[in-house]
Amino acid sequence: MTIAALQADILRLKRETDTCVLAHSYQAREILEIADISGDSFALSQAALKRPEQNMLLCGVRFMAETVKLLSPEKTVRLANPRAGCPMAEQFDRPALEAIKSQYPDHTVVAYINTTAQLKTLCDVCVTSSSAVKIVKQLPNDDILFIPDCNLGAYVAAQVPEKHIKLLQGGCPIHAAVEASEARAAKAAHPQALLLVHPECTPEVVALADYVGSTAGIMQYAKASPAREFIVGTEASIAEHLQYDCNAQDARMDKRFYPLSPKLLCPDMKLTTLPEVLLALRGEAGEEIELDDFTLRQARRCIDKMIELGE
């Protein structure tokens, strides 16, 4: 079966099953093309709130599907590939975080959205990579325990020096693996290119960037910039998507995008395939996300606080 035939079947089944397909930006191009909504994890959850469909199919990783369920508990939420997890989200479990909190009882616990629903039940406020600085600035407490990404936390700490931010040794192993020497080599190979970096990269890499921001921020910046060449310091699929988005009407490739490092490939994001999306719509694959009442109630609190402070 061709990609086009698979996509046609998926589009038909979406209508027949009253399903909205949500696809994270790191998914393959052929999946984004059949998605109703694409974007970063929180954008997908917000979009699901406004969709009329009763069924949500998440093409991404487990914590993202959990976040959709937290914001739309009345809807049926399925994860297209049940094996798709996130090493950063799963670095700490609830008992481990309880033990850490006991050491810092006076700290406000700030959770990156890339955490499990179980961890969110213990946190005071959630943040995204684009909202973290804004939200931390507004917190009345100057003592902050930031989980789990120490690189994003270090970036926030540099932007909000008036806060005392305690960091843990956690984070995205994919972004953290990129070395400053690779960034310098990429800049030397493409001297006219701007370096766009996700704050999950190390502070040494971030310091070399022309722009630091979330996945959505990187894409928006590249599209709006008059520059013609960019080194993309986040998951390699973003460089590919930008090539399509910025050059769809111009075969001369008006803008060019270079992945910062071959290390920037998320294996969990690559687990979801177009045939699996079709099987999930048929009810032959995927997994329904179910959260108990305590988790739905407690984990939702820190997301609601994020929405309040992020507006």
Structure overview:
This protein is of the alpha/beta class. It has three domains: about 5-85 and about 270-290, Rossmann fold (3-Layer(aba) Sandwich), CATH 3.40.50.10800; about 95-170 and about 295-310, Rossmann fold, CATH 3.40.50; about 180-260, NadA-like (Rossmann fold, 3-Layer(aba) Sandwich). About 45% of the residues lie in helices and about 15% in strands. It is built from 15 helices and 13 strands. The protein has helices spanning about 5-15, 30, 40-50, 60-70, 95-105, 115-120, 130-140, 150-160, 175, 180-190, 205, 215-225, 235-245, 275-280, 295-310, and strands spanning about 20-25, 35-40, 55-60, 75-80, 110, 125, 145, 165, 195, 210, 230-235, 255-260, 285-290. The strands form three sheets. The chain has a five-stranded mixed beta sheet, sandwiched between helices. Strands 6-5-7-8 form a four-stranded parallel beta sheet. Helix 12 packs parallel to helix 13 (about 235-245). It starts with a helix and ends with a helix.
